[in-house]
Amino acid sequence: TRRVRTRDLLAAKQRGDRWAMLTSYDQYTAGIFDAAGIPVLLVGDSAANNVFGYETTVPVTADELLPLVRAVVRATKTALIVGDLPFGSYEEGPTQALRTAVRFMKEGGCHAVKLEGGRRVSGQISALTGAGIPVMAHIGFTPQSEHAFGGYRVQGRGDRAAEELVADARAVAEAGAFAVVLEMVPGEVATQITKELSIPTVGIGAGPDTDAQVMVWQDMAGLRTGKAPRFVKHYADLATVLGEATRRFADEVRGGEFPAAEHTFS
Ligand code: KIV
Ligand code: NA
Predict the structure, then answer these.
(1) What does pTM read for this prediction?
(2) What are the percentages of helix, strand and coil residues in the chain, rounded to 5?
(3) Residue 100 and residue 106 in contact, taking contact as beta carbons nearer than 8 Å
(4) From the alpha carbon of 181, which atom of ligand 1 is closest?
(5) Closest residue (by CA) to atom 8 of ligand 1?
(6) Does the ipTM exceed 0.90?
(7) Span 54-79, pLDDT tens digits
(8) Is there a contact between 45 and 76 (Cβ–Cβ < 8 Å)?
(9) Domains assigned to the chain
């Protein structure tokens, strides 16, 4: 077995084969997702929320994300690992973007990077792809700009906004991105972009027609509870499973049932 390559994802689109992508931030989930055949894992800056407990993705830094990238790379054999460039690490321009992306490739050991934005970051995407770094773009609702958007809101609604979104999709493909995430956009607009672009589209809240779908793993597995966005589906109830295991462990310790003879050295 070998690692998935970006050209495998282009070939999948040409064949009409769909694929699933998940976030991962640690060795156990990375190993499980890799063994389950997930071809692309994203060490998302959503670690800000899902690992570090920040309220938004704005505060998380490259220094915080890089150890997670290394862990996910070490724990996987076949998945292509994408490292997410955090807010503030690429906006200044191509030089800053290249400096950060090189850190992700060298120190993190990932195989591609992702950054947020369309036309406004096409210079950065060109610089990275020109330097041999595969880039996944991310347009539509981009969480690093949530303060500018005024919260989690669908983007690309209405003729004018849809045209802007299509222009962003064209720009990132033209700049050399190997794939583009479409987050929280109307399904019809995602369908149109998916048909038009030769690179794969990866949807999250973008309807059923994108070439791939991405979900935050804690959402997919039901570890994160509470009010979920419309695009989340729980495929397990890990929060309940883990809560019950924890209560049983604590009960057995309190009751003197654990440890038993078989857990004890003589
Ligand atoms: O950081 C993240 O989890 C993401 C995906 C949801 C695309 O950017
Ligand atoms: Na992200």
Answers:
(1) 0.98
(2) 45, 15, 40
(3) no
(4) 7
(5) 44
(6) yes
(7) 999 999 999 999 999 999 999 999 99
(8) no
(9) 6-235 (3.20.20.60), 238-266 (no CATH)
